[in-house]
Amino acid sequence: MSRLLLFNKPYGVLSQFTPEGRWRGLKDYIDLPGVYVAGRLDADSEGLLLLTDNGQLQARISAPRHKLEKIYWVQVEGEPDEAALETLRRGVHLNDGITRPARARRIAEPPHLWPRIPPIRQRAAIPTAWIELALCEGRNRQVRRMTAAVGFPTLRLVRAAIGPFSLSGLAPGEARLLQDTPEKLLPYNSRPGSSPRSAR
Question: Which of 52, 128, 144, 188 lies most in the core, judged by the most C-beta atoms within 10 Å?
Fold first, then answer.
């Protein structure tokens, strides 16, 4: 039976069990042997992190070729206009190539969002705004590089969902264990007796 752990990673925690430098590790929060991170989240980002003991599921979640959508709430410096949002949607030219098409929209500050510790830097003369950004790829620090490229640096980054799984009901530092992982997250060829044709 597969296990999948949903964890709301606080700011300042690495996507690994051992601490490093000034950053804490997952061992301070998770005491479940045999699970491994599926898709990393930077130490200075917050939100949903998935861990599993199923290698096929780990690959399905983290490998870009599977195009599993990930949703981020992004607080940026400044107030993005429709032109900036459209650039995010169509693709942003980064130093490692143009990004895939994405979904991007302005949102209000997400309800029930916890205060970040430490708080973000704020400048009295410069407003901030929130964007919801949905991506199907996971380059290194991609969200931060995308918003900076369109002129709106990221101040706070929260991953709200990965595929069908979300942060709902999880406070920072809390985890929820799911048993018998849903098959729809596994590649077709990992399911006994299945094939792309039989899944139509």
Answer: 52
